[in-house]
Hints:
The chain has helices spanning 15-33, 66-72, 75-88, and strands at 2-9, 39-44, 57-63, 95-101. By secondary structure, the chain is of the alpha+beta class.
Amino acid sequence: MMAKVVVFYPPPADVDGFLASWRREHAPWLVSHIPGVTRTVYSKALWTFDGEPPCFLLAEFYFPSLEALQKGFPPATAQELAAHAAATLQGCAPIVFVCMEEAAGEIGARQCPVHDDRKEIQPCIA
């Protein structure tokens, strides 16, 4: 299983200024301060199906194991990340999650956790 850090950045007041600071200062800081990362993904939240998204940008940092994550992204680094974001991204207060990623199998052929008593693996539409 892969371990990852997911960072939610809230919607900024000034989108253009946020993105300029993100590209110029914060993204390079992230890359230089989080060792052991095997993959990095940045996503801009566009919408939710019930309104505006609660975040503007998501950053995902993948590690080969939980041990590698703990070594490369200790609590002190998370605190530094928050302080750097506040200083460079219009006072932004990101939310940081530590996650374990587990593959669910093929789409349409996975066991549904709601209906896990079924004898065979079937797509769930519940």
